[in-house]
Amino acid sequence: MERRRAVKFLFSWLSLSILNILRCGPSYPRRIAEVLGKNEAAVVRALKELERLGIVESKWARIRDRNVKIYKLKVREININVGKEGFRLLLRTRGNTYEPTYSSVIPEYRFFVDRRFELEAISSARGVVIIVGLPGMGKTALASEYARRHRGPTIWVDVTSSMSLRDLLRKLAVDLSSYGYGDLARYMLSGGGRVDVSVSLACGGLESLSALLVLDDLHRCRDPGVLEFIEHLDKRLTKAKVVATSTRTPRLALERGRVITVGPLPLKAIAQLLSLYGIKVKPSYLGMVYAATGGIPLIVSLLASLARSDHAYSLPIGGRRIVSTLISRMLDELDEPCVKLLRLISTFRKNPLLEEVEEVYGRCVGYMVNRLASLGLLRIEDGRVVVHEIIKEHVYRAMEDRRKMHAKLAQYYIERSSSHGDEGYFEAFYHLVKACKYERALMLRFRQMGKGISYKDLDAYRDLLREIPVDDLDNRSKAIYILCRADAGEVNEGELWRAVKLALLSGDRSLLAAFYSLLSSVAFREGRIRDASILAINAR
């Protein structure tokens, strides 16, 4: 059992990343943690385990008036033998060098059809290629197929909303070092913090290896530095290539690169995809299938899976849209707890963490998540539960108790606002509005008025305010509503004075003081110092 655990630990992402870093030279835990973007305590635990296994060794050294532990590779060869006695981990200090390497995981797709012209376009393009298409159109599958045909090293990056340019450079440092290019990793280990130097070294590494860098779901990225990095790659790369997928065309000034739009599958490709699932469709029915599915590969695959599992199911369904039929049929095959879980996840505004889902659901949901994932209804990404937008939309529309579900989530975020911070309050505001508890939502926002709305949530905040029926509110809530619109930058001074009258009628002094303070700020910005002083006094 100990040997099995050792092998499993050795081939974990963190262990392999540390070994790749130490290939470039000795270093200490804090510096390694900075390069990998990981918690220092986790790195220390992994280093101690590697030292216990005899793979690395350490010694104390004095760096910048501090005693630190320097780690370096102890072995030159690692062999794992599998025999009748089980796993055997053999370490050698002499002989040919063998380094465990970490390769980026390229998503696997069971079937891939058509897209010949798109693949040729990617192959002929230079620099950066952006694959744009609607959700479910097969962008990731296309990038995956091209990556598998690429003969050189491939680095696959799943872009997240929290990913920064430094995070991307850290990952490139680890992956490039695994392919033999350690300049970027050595620069980061030496304490180099200049982004321009790191960017230049990353470009050099990709180019020297003729590597393929795939950035999946680029539309999630919120760091403009990542887009600037892509533009820099487009100018410099000649042998290497960058392929990015996105649901919308990113704002990039590409000089040599190109944007490829992925559209629906043609009739011939739909027939080929269905045949791969073992389903033969008459040519006269293909048009009906295309009209019902829109030629979206994901929906065609879901249709084929359902048809295989239910032989009584007929592919042509007349004039009804196939998407809603597919979702309802698949939900009918699930037990009630799984359906309840899928509805809960579809109610979240953002992709929730697995722990958040379990807290709201009230029990462990691991087995249900695995079952839904096996059916292709959701996936786990960076610890978050992700339901495809097409499925999420139709599950949410079919929910009869969505207000009750939103109210439950609002209460969850209010009770745990201390751990979620300002974002938690905004999520609570969102769910209260969706639950039609408008007065409570406005009161919650008024109490948190001192905390601004983040830029990334500003458009969603404005859309929520437009959903509130103002005419049905009392005077106090109407005044708070105007205050919220002012917070979103959508109110002029005249509307603020009308809101002052509503605040006077409501008798809420704190609300009145908030309007006087806001009007004082407006007067001060316009240079009306005397008016600003009088209003500031009234605000007290």
The quaternary organization reads as single chain
Q: In CATH terms, what is the fold-level topology of the largest domain? A: Rossmann fold
Helix content: 55-70%
Which sequence of strands runs across the widest sheet? 6-7-8-5-9
| Overall domain count | 5
Q: Which structural class should the secondary elements be placed in?
A: alpha/beta
> Given the C-alpha coordinates, what overall shape results?
globular
Number of helices: 26
Ends apart, CA distance between termini? 70 Å
Q: What is the total tally of β strands?
A: 11
CATH homologous superfamily label of the largest domain: P-loop containing nucleotide triphosphate hydrolases
Describe the main β-sheet briefly.
5 strands, parallel
Low-confidence stretches: 83-87, 96-103, 311-320
CATH C-level label of the largest domain: Alpha Beta
The CATH architecture classification of the largest domain is: 3-Layer(aba) Sandwich
**Portion in beta strands:** 5-15%
Overall mean pLDDT stands at: 79
Commentary on this structure:
By secondary structure, the chain is an alpha/beta fold. It has five domains: 2-92, Winged helix-like DNA-binding domain superfamily/Winged helix DNA-binding domain (Arc Repressor Mutant, subunit A), CATH 1.10.10.10; 116-261, P-loop containing nucleotide triphosphate hydrolases (Rossmann fold), CATH 3.40.50; 267-332; 336-399, Arc Repressor Mutant, subunit A (Orthogonal Bundle); 417-539, no CATH class. It is built from 26 helices and eleven strands. The chain has helices at 2-10, 13-23, 29-36, 40-52, 116-124, 139-149, 165-178, 183-189, 195-209, 224-236, 267-276, 283-293, 297-309, 322-332, 336-347, 354-361, 366-374, 389-398, 402-415, 417-434, 438-447, 458-467, 475-487, 493-506, 509-525, 529-539; strands spanning 56-63, 66-73, 77-83, 86-92, 127-132, 154-158, 212-216, 241-246, 258-261, 378-381, 384-387. The chain is globular. Mean pLDDT is 79; it is low at 83-87, 96-103 and 311-320.
